[in-house]
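Quick question, first post here. What does this chain look like in 3D?
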Amino acid sequence: MTRARMPRPHEVAAAKRDPRLLRAAREQQGDDAWRTRGACQTVDPETFFPAPSEPADAAVALCRTCDVQGACLAWALEVGDCHGVWGATTPRERRAMLVAWRSDVPNPGLTGPTPEHRIGPVACLPLLPIQRVGRTDRRDPVGAAS
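> Answer (accepted):
Ran it through. Tokens below.
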């Protein structure tokens, strides 16, 4: 298995202008029951998780006809899902979108989550800084009293 690379700056810039990402930003806080209305409900889930050597064209084509495409992509970006097809995007496309989604640079037309909501799984982007939540005392690993 190969490790995913960080998106290049020009890929992130293109992702910020991608209409699918802009739609996801608009629909991110819409109806929570969007999954029940997805076009994917009538299709085998394996369609959306092709092997790395297989094309994802069938899944992407189905997603493009779906009414909840934006909410689906917003969900995938929020949770950092880096496998399968979500919101008519492949994992490679979402890696660049994820950087744009979580960036602190304001972008007109893109109203992604606020900085406090951007902390989450970053399995697709292993080189992003992760915020420490607590303090770990390595001198006493078993918790014995001093």
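Residues 104-133, 136-141 have pLDDT under 50 and may be disordered.
The CA atoms of residues 18 and 120 lie 22 Å apart.
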